[in-house]
């Protein structure tokens, strides 16, 4: 064939379709539900002051919306792999979505803060069941290979983290009940989509023993990283759950602030963290970013009376949190030869304890001392996490040399968030 003929043939050939955008309907259904599920992370941030005002609750009581959610999410993580390997991914997804629909609706209908706290716990259970199963479902059902599936999944995750606070601010400016009702409706749509578009599995994986996550915590490397994550999460959730109160903005202002925070988390977790770990050892990235986060939290304390200064600290903190979440969870997955879901669930259960304790403790400290004090406590806790990584380096040094594939990176981002 002549060069001219080759050129003619190439010019007449149809353009290749982007495999990422041409997926089975079931994959789009799960991806849509993923966006909504990850929105739940920052959805309540903009409405915390409004809930406190409307339900005559103290900041400490209101912060328990995070505590109940995180405690139950962490506890449930210990059992999600046991359940999904017995009833199948589809039923686990639907069960998780159904719980979120019911409990988000119930939270929106509540007449007192105690009820909202309780229903947020049920929401946390549903979220744990859904999130722990979604990635494997998308990878298994997507066309165009695992790479396309992972890009789609990470896009859904990033959208959810960023949009959650913004939607919370928009709906919260109408009523504090709006974000709860909005989540319930969107998750109901996701439930219907998965129920109608996703086929039942023909085969299931080998059942996971109930004791597996508990035994995993006896591994020294995993234990070191889990305890470091516990102290790190104290800093994380003081920044996330306490900051709306000293900021003093309305629901829309808080929504925009934490939209910036969520966008920073999404960008650095998906793109910056892998870039850093390709050039530096994971353990070095961990302790260095932890120290930078401590400095950011100190800055938040120093600028606690400055709205602009505190907003900048929140967004910079989001960028650092995104790197930490991904690299820390990648390290956990490389720390042992355990199945990744087992290692991740054991680690998540421990780290969520720090996240659950932090919000009410921060509010109590602010009342007892000053508005800036919780940020200094958060900084101290993050420094402790950095010291644990440094002192325990001998036990975790091997994570610096483990290579992660695309699926492992996506799982790390999921578990980190």
From TrEMBL:
Major facilitator superfamily (MFS) profile domain ranges (all copies): 26-397
One MF term in the entry's GO annotations: transmembrane transporter activity
Pfam families on file: MFS_1
Keyword list, A-Z: Membrane, Transmembrane, Transmembrane helix
Subcellular locations according to the entry: Cell membrane
Domain of life: Bacteria
GO annotations of cellular component type: plasma membrane
Gene3D superfamilies on file: MFS general substrate transporter like domains (1.20.1250.20)
UniProt KW Transmembrane keyword: yes
Nucleotide-binding found in the keyword field: no
Primary location group: membrane
Membrane topology summary: Multi-pass membrane protein
Stretches that traverse the bilayer: 26-44, 64-85, 92-109, 121-143, 150-174, 180-199, 220-245, 251-273, 285-304, 310-328, 349-369, 375-396
Name this protein carries in UniProt: Predicted arabinose efflux permease, MFS family
Originating species: Herbiconiux ginsengi
């Amino acid at each position: 064939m002549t060069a001219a003929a080759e050129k003619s043939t190439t010019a007449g050939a149809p353009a290749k379709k982007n495999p990422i955008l041409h997926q089975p309907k079931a994959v789009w259904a799960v991806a849509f539900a993923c966006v909504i599920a990850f929105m739940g992370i920052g959805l309540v941030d903009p409405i915390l002051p409004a809930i406190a005002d409307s339900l005559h609750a103290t900041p400490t009581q209101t912060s328990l919306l995070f505590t109940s959610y995180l405690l139950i999410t962490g506890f449930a993580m210990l059992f999600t792999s046991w359940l999904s390997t017995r009833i199948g991914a589809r039923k686990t997804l639907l069960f998780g979505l159904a719980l979120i629909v019911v409990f988000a609706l119930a939270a929106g209908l509540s007449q007192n803060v105690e009820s909202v706290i309780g229903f947020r716990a049920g929401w946390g259970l549903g979220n744990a069941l859904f999130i722990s199963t979604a990635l494997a479902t998308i990878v298994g059902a997507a066309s165009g290979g695992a790479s396309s599936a992972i890009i789609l999944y990470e896009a859904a995750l990033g959208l959810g983290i960023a949009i959650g606070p913004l939607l919370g601010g928009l709906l919260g400016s109408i009523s504090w009940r709006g974000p709860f009702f909005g989540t319930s409706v969107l998750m109901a749509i996701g439930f219907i989509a998965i129920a109608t578009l996703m086929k039942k599995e023909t085969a299931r994986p080998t059942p996971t023993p109930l004791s597996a996550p508990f035994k995993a915590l006896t591994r020294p490397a995993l234990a070191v990283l889990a305890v470091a994550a516990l102290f790190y999460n104290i800093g994380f959730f003081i920044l996330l759950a306490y900051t709306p109160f000293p900021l003093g903005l309305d629901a829309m202002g808080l929504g925009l602030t934490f939209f910036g925070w969520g966008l920073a988390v999404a960008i650095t977790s998906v793109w910056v963290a892998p870039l850093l770990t390709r050039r530096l050892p994971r353990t070095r990235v961990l302790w260095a970013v932890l120290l930078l986060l401590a400095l950011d939290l100190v800055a938040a304390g120093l600028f606690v009376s400055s709205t602009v200064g505190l907003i900048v600290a929140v967004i910079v903190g989001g960028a650092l949190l995104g790197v930490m979440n991904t690299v820390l969870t990648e390290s956990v997955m490389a720390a042992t030869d355990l199945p990744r879901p087992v290692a991740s669930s054991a680690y998540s259960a421990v780290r969520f304890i720090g996240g659950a304790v932090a919000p009410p403790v921060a509010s109590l400290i602010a009342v007892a001392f000053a508005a800036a004090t919780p940020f200094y406590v958060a900084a101290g806790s993050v420094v402790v996490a950095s010291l644990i990584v440094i002192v325990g380096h001998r036990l975790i040094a091997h994570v610096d040399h483990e290579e992660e594939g695309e699926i492992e990176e996506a799982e790390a981002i999921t578990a980190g968030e």
